[in-house]
Structure formats: structure tokens, C-alpha cells
Amino acid sequence: MKNKKINMEKLVNHCKNMGIIFPGSEIYGGLANSWDYGPVGVELKNNIRSLWWKKFVQESEYTMGVDAAILMNPKVWEASGHLASFTDPLMDCRSCKTRHRADNLIEKHSKGSVNADKMSNEEMESYVVQHKVACPVCGNSDFTPIRQFNLMFETYRGVTKESNSQIYLRPETAQGEFVNFSNVQRSLRMKLPFGIGQTGKAFRNEITPGNFTFRTIEFEQMEHQLFCKEGDDEKFYDFYKNYSMEFFKSLGFENDVLRFKDHEKLAHYAKSACDVEYLFNFGWGEINGIHNRTNFDLSRHQEFSGKNLEYTDPATNEKFIPFVVEASYGLDRITLAVLDNAYDVEELEDGTEREIMRFKPSIAPFKVGILPLIKKLHSEKAHDVYRMLSKHFRVMYDETGSIGKRYRRQDAIGTPFCVTIDDETINNQTVTIRFRDSMQQEVVALDNLVAFITSKLAEE
Ligand code: ATP
Asked: Which CATH number is 94's domain given?
């Protein structure tokens, strides 16, 4: 069952103090909705990304990976519809001049009982007036009409800032997979159904406050597009719903903190769409979207590029534009969910508390803490052990403070195993392993240490 001991402020502080996530550009006062991963956080994020790649690309019989450019020909965003309609409905408070998303104002005001996603701009405006929705900053209820604000970051290539030199930072990675459909299909002679997977940065000019790394202006996505024949699409849609849940379970989530939420208002091209939501300390929030996008994307790219993106069925010679089932994951949001889920405060028998991140060992940032019992006597041998283990695992060396304090520090960053180097190591070539969750200890021969930790990591 989910522990209730955490709120976002506590998690933000813990992440900062333990080198997991820092506020972006902090020494200059920060930049709203931007965060930097520290030495512990970068390992966690890398591990989650690798697990995703393993599950969605490596273990799939029909998926290939790509790494497409962030900056793309601007026509891509015309074809995808982002230039025309990737917008948020914004209202400005006339009293305090702050800017808000109309849908968020309504959802907050109605405590989630009204789904603003289903409302038109006119309906949202009249709801705000009729219900005297108050500005969350100053409390007055005097808003401008809604303006649609495009979320894409614009930039310019070359020396002049003219409209023909305008380009965009990609707001999603998916288009890099669509525009390479034919390249991947032809170069590797792929037959339908086949998938293209990609991870990488995306950028959105988000105005609303972010709930830590839940909503940021720069974030990483992990996206998988499955190209198939019409008729097979719903089968793959169901498959990826289940596959997503399997992926989330492999990260250590239990059933009670995950749920599907079907989209009530489908995009005009979508046949089916749902989100996977996680129960964050602030409530349910989307971590993954699964969409049956029909043949919309490739049809639009065929139309706007003038290139033929049809697939020819080798058995029947039939030509058609494939359907796409998309599974889209936010790496930073999933990392936040993993942090939120793992954080625990345990009361010990002696009445003290220990902070512990209960990561599954496979995604724990550091697998082993290497702790010389007495710095003067054991640090040389401990460095030998560091060199041996670091060839196999991400390990951390720590010789500062009492052994008890060092165990606590490793608990607080979720290191599943601590290896203590003492006189026995020097005289008998053995170490003591202490387990994070049970705090029990076991003596292991140095010769057997790599195999022992490998087998423990494989146990989960
Ligand atoms: P939201 O409704 O929260 O704005 P979305 O429906 O626009 O999200 P998608 O476009 O489906 O999100 O993007 C896929 C995934 O990318 C989301 O499930 C989420 O995990 C992640 N994501 C989207 N926007 C952000 C953001 N601003 N910051 C961090 N992660 C994001």
C-alpha cells in the first residue's frame, strides 16, 4: 500500500539534499519549471531509460530504434497540426497580471468534478464568469477572454530573425519516427507490423506551475510507434495497454497506484486513446499515453512532403498507408513517480527514524556502497574493492563519518547493498554485506562478491 508520509515539498528537499534533483540554474535564482539531475538522479533516470529501451526495442521482435534530430524542417509541424493547434487556452488576471490555463482554473474550482477538456473556449469563459472563479494568486475574479497560446518554442537559424528562418524545438519525439518511416522500412526491409522506438528531449513552453518535475519546459520522452495494417490496430492498442502496465510493474509499482483513464474527448484523428495514471502525493497524474492514431500521421506527411509513404504488402501487392498505435512515456514524470513511490520513512526499534528509497535494485542509482570501517586502516583495501566492483556495477565509495551514518546515507539514496571493509577483509579476504531493506548482514568471500551481488540483482 502507498505510504502517506510524503508531500511534494519533502520530496523536493530530499532530492536536493541527496544529489538527486536540483533546481535549474539555482545560483541565478533558478528558471521556473526547469530542473537539473544530480549525480544520483542521473543514474536513476539512465536506468529507467535503459529498462524502457530493453523492453520496447531490444525485447521486441519487430522494433528498431532511431535517434532523430530535435530541430526539424518546420513543415513537419504544419503537417502534424502542432503549428495550428498545439495550444493552451490562457486567461490573464486583470488584477494581478498573472496568467492561467482556463481548463486548470475550472478543474481546480470544481475540485475535479467538471472536466474542462470537453468544453469549448466559450463554455470555459462563461463558466469562469458565472461561477466567479477566483485567481489563485490574488483571489479576484476578473479575467481577460481566452487566448490560444502555442506551446512550441521558436528559434531562428542563421543570422537573421525572419519568418523563413524560423524553426522550432520539437514538442514531442514522435514526428522523428513518422518522418523516418520509409527510411527504416526500406533500409532494414521491415514488414508490417513493425515498430520504431526513440528516446530524447522535447520542449514545451508550459505556463502553469509544474509540481516539481511533473510539468517542465524541457523533458525527455520515450516513444514507440507501431505501424500496422488497418484492422490490426485495435489489437495492438490493447497489446500496448497491457505492455505498459507490465513495464510499470517492472519499475516497482503495485496495482493500487496505477490506473487507466480513457480519453473522453478524442482528437479528430484518434480511434481510441487512454492514459496510464499514477497516484502521486498530489493525486492522480498521467505518466503515459496510448493512442490509436489511425493513418493520420503518415497521410499528413505524405500530403505535405509530396513523398509517397505507402507500404506495399509483399503478399498481395496492395498499397496503403499504415495505421499507427503510439505508446508515449515521459521519462521525467516516470522518474518522479518512481521517487514518490520509493520514498519511505521507517521507525526503528530504538525510536529513531530512517529515510529510505525503496527502489527495485535493478533501477537503484547505485547498487553498492563501499565503506571502509576505519579510514586509516581499511581505505586502501576498500579502493581495491571499488576498482573490482565498479567494472560490473555503479558503486559509491564513502569513508566520511560513522558507519551508522554512512548506512543511513546509502539508505536515503536507495543503495540496496553496502559492503563493509574491515580487518577480516585484510586478513581473511571476506567482506560484510548489509542489505538496505532488512538491514541484515552476511559475510561473503571477496572472490565471490561479484557473483553474489549479480545473483541478488537477478533475484527480483
Ligand atoms: P499533459 O496533459 O499532462 O500536458 P499530454 O497529454 O500533453 O500531457 P503527451 O503529449 O501525450 O502529454 O506526452 C506524452 C508524455 O510526455 C506524457 O504522458 C508525460 O509523461 C510526458 N509529458 C508531457 N508534457 C510534459 C511536460 N511538460 N513535462 C514533463 N513531462 C511531460
From this structure: 3.30.40.230
How many residues appear in the chain? 460
Q: How far, in Å, is the centroid of ligand 1 from the Cα of 413? A: 27
Q: Whose CA is nearest to atom 20 of ligand 1?
A: 330
Task: Tell me the CA–centroid distance for residue 119 and ligand 1, in Å.
Answer: 20
Q: Give ligand 1 pocket residues (Cβ under 6 A).
A: 172, 204, 206, 215-216, 219, 221, 286-289, 328, 330, 332-333
Residue 406 has pLDDT above 70, yes or no: yes
**CA-nearest residue, atom 26 of ligand 1:** 215
**Are 168 and 285 part of one and the same domain?**
yes
pLDDT at 113: 86
Atom 16 (ligand 1) nearest CA:
330
Nearest CA to ligand 1 atom 25: 215
Residue 162 lies in a domain: yes
**Nearest atom, ligand 1, residue 217 CA:** 27
pLDDT band with cut points at 50, 70 and 90 for residue 1: very low
pTM, 2 dp: 0.93
| Mean pLDDT on 29-34 | 92
Q: Are residues 139 and 203 in the same domain?
A: no
pLDDT in tens, 65-96: 999 999 999 999 999 999 998 998 999 999 99
Does residue 357 fall inside a structural domain? no
CATH number for position 292: 3.30.930.10
Cβ–Cβ contacts within 10 Å for residue 29, how many? 7
For residues 314 and 449, membership in a common domain is answered with: no
